[in-house]
Amino acid sequence: MVKVAILGASGGIGQPLSLLLKLSPYISKLALYDVRDPAGVAVDLSHINSVAEIESYHGDQLGDALRGARVVVIPAGVPRKPGMSRDDLFNINAGIVRTLCEGIARSCPNATVLVISNPVNSLVPVALETLRKNNVQNPENRVMGITTLDMVRAETFLGDYLNKARVSSVGSKQFDKRRMHKLVTVIGGHSGHTIVPVVLLKPLVYMMKPGEYDRFLNRVQFGGDEVVKAKQGQGSATYSMAFAAHRFVDVVLRSIQRMPTDDAGFTPAYVQLSQLPGGAEAQNKLGAGKAAAEYLSLPVVLRDGRIERIDSSVLDQLSVKEREMLKTALPELADNVRRGKRFICNPA
Ligand code: NAD
Ligand code: LMR
């Protein structure tokens, strides 16, 4: 059984994510931590008769929240308002993630660290470099940015399209949207054009009417903006993100419990490719210099909550269009990574 800590548990994502993780059969202790005291959320959740025991911490109790944690999930930080980019959040959120990772280095240096806070493309390097700077050994095999929301959106939007268009020639009239991860995946990064949806069953693309495929791609890449706009200044995606994070954390927990999962082999995460088994192979397939593809979201194979290897087979299946999109993504990703690393390694 496993202790999981949620840092930022009082927030828009933190609260529904805490509820979903409270229901997990794989968690024995769920520690809720926030600078805004999550005591009310904790007492409320503690009345649910599921396995996980709830603990609540705030302010200077970060060390107590983290002690013994095997998995740490970080949704702490500010969300976007209309007109902002994820990059606009960097200055505030990089400082928050650095402080939290300093605490992780002190209290649970071997924990798997899952970053939700934006901009993910830059904050995963911030998390990794903070751990390294604080003498944590080989953190690259257990620090991951959660990009599952892009997968969830791609599955939902493609499933909606297929059902509306009544595409029946691939075997079924009604697509089960919970099974869509075998038809589509998303790689790259987590912002606008760095998000690269990849349709795994290529005939689906050819069946789409002109313009339909481009609309699908655009909606996945800019789905976050759709929610930010609809929430009119009240933040960004929270419920769909909590669902997506729960889905990813469940895969991590199952890898610890050695339980099979339907998502295994189909689960991308944003990681530091260059340091991981299978990473160099992925970089070679990208045909870009090592520096240009240091971090990327690609399917990861997990074991014991850690990355055993990168599975780059999806890169063998790219269409010309998907390859072009990835080529467009790489320079932006490299800039994002540089910004994150500079924040920790060469602060001005
Ligand atoms: P929110 O403002 O509702 O909640 C954030 C919480 O973090 C607040 O409760 C706040 O008190 C807490 N916090 C701030 N500083 C902290 C610190 N130092 N330690 C602990 N807690 C701290 O925001 P939200 O809607 O939950 O979004 C959180 C982050 O997740 C944002 O950066 C957002 O952009 C990002 N996000 C990422 C994805 C993704 O796909 N990866 C999806 C949606 C949102
Ligand atoms: C999303 O994709 O919904 C999140 O990254 C939040 C945002 O700012 O769009």
Automatic annotation (TrEMBL):
Keywords, sorted A to Z: NAD, Oxidoreductase, Tricarboxylic acid cycle
Residues engaged in binding NAD(+): G8, A9, S10, G11, G12, I13, G14, D34, N93, I116, S117, N118, M241
A GO biological-process term: tricarboxylic acid cycle
PROSITE patterns: MDH (PS00068)
Residues annotated for substrate binding in this entry: R80, R86, N118, R153
One cellular component term from this protein's GO annotations in UniProt: mitochondrion
Protein EC: 1.1.1.37
Domain of life: Eukaryota
A GO MF term: L-malate dehydrogenase (NAD+) activity
Segments forming domain Lactate/malate dehydrogenase C-terminal: 147-343
Transmembrane segments: none
Record Gene3D superfamilies: Lactate dehydrogenase/glycoside hydrolase, family 4, C-terminal, NAD(P)-binding Rossmann-like Domain
Catalyses which reaction(s): (S)-malate + NAD(+) = oxaloacetate + NADH + H(+)
InterPro entries: L-lactate/malate_DH (IPR001557), Lactate/malate_DH_C (IPR022383), Lactate/malate_DH_N (IPR001236), Lactate_DH/Glyco_Ohase_4_C (IPR015955), Malate_DH_AS (IPR001252), Malate_DH_type1 (IPR010097), NAD(P)-bd_dom_sf (IPR036291)
Catalytic site: H190
Record domain Lactate/malate dehydrogenase N-terminal: where: 2-145
Quaternary structure and interacting proteins, as annotated: Homodimer.
Family, per entry: Belongs to the LDH/MDH superfamily. MDH type 1 family.
Matching PANTHER family: MALATE AND LACTATE DEHYDROGENASE, MALATE DEHYDROGENASE, PEROXISOMAL
Protein name from the UniProt record: Malate dehydrogenase
